[in-house]
Design brief:
Elements: E1 4-5, E2 8-13, H1 18-23, E3 29-33, E4 36-41, E5 44-49, E6 52-54, H2 60-66, H3 69-77, E7 81-88, H4 94-99, H5 117-132, E8 134-146, E9 149-152, E10 161-162, E11 164-167, E12 171-174, E13 180-181, H6 185-197, E14 201-204, E15 207-211, E16 214-226, E17 241-253, H7 260-263, H8 268-290, H9 306-310, H10 312-316, E18 319-327, H11 334-348, E19 351-352
Parallel strand pairs: 2-6, 2-18, 7-17, 7-18
Antiparallel strand pairs: 1-19, 3-4, 4-5, 8-9, 8-13, 8-16, 9-10, 11-12, 14-15, 16-17
Helix pairs in contact: 3-5
Length: about 350
Amino acid sequence: TSVSPYPSLTIRVRPLTCTETRRGDRRVVHNLGDGAVHVSAARHDATFGFSAVFDAGASQEDVFEGSGMRQLVELAIDGFSCTVFAFGQTGSGKTYTLMGPLAQSETQPASPALLGLMQRSFACLLEQSQSRGSDLSLSASYLEIYNEQVRDLLSPGPPCTLPLRWSKTRGFYVENQLSVDFESLEAIVSLLLQGSQRRRTSAHALNRHSSRSHALLTIHIRSRAVSTHPAAGEGLGGPGTCPSKQGTLCFVDLAGSERVKETGSSGELSVEANSINRSLLALGHCISLLAKPRGKRTHIPYRDSKLTRLLARSLGGSGITLMVACISPSSRCLSETLSTLHYACRARRVTTRP
């Protein structure tokens, strides 16, 4: 095995909203090119370097091609465990980057130009499977972590809570999670939209459609290459076949970090916010420890939250991970933007053994 850094850690800066523009917020985040982003404000003047920076003018297609997402799909087909994170402050554009407009449905699909990383990856996956001549078996599972409960978004009826288990061979896994086979782009997009509509969202001062849960959609890819040579693969499962590979492509839409006083949350919303922040803190703690040189690492506390348990393999083990940090350019969001950028810098130092 070889030690490699995350293949890509990219920054996406959303446009100023109409509210921010009317309020007179200043733009404090600037794209310098070559993966550099500069933050300039009173008492804050810093430059950060990443794999790529996408500013307000970048299209969804630009993000897909420039982030290395296409290569990640190919690695998943080759049998690797691949994960895509979107993280950042609530309202920073995480769900839009992954899925596109929230208003889309099966009856009202989004414009092709606005489709996110997920739909573009599905199309790329199906194109690759046809061009490679592989015998691919594809299935999908979709869950959310809401108030530290794991809930299946694809099972019939109200989302049911599922237990999280541990085994020596599988690591942490969700018991009895529904996995649905699919063969077409329409089928997997339908599963995505159905599950997303069941996900917990609420309105507050920072975001009218704030995600109140972490969502994980996983594509399971089992491939068996079929050779045209009659003698190929004999003794490995019969003439004309090669050993099978099993890869995964997991999309993680993290609920936004937020300050309760900024959102005006109270009651149930406040409980949700505290639960979200605790799990994000646990994730940040794991990333900080993983970023240390291997000889100086202490125990990595994956068990501190359901989120870190499910992402243990992606964070520090056998996976390959793309992280997309979404930030606001507004002066009003300066504190959260700096927090996200520092978080991303720590994550960039993490190495894995895929």
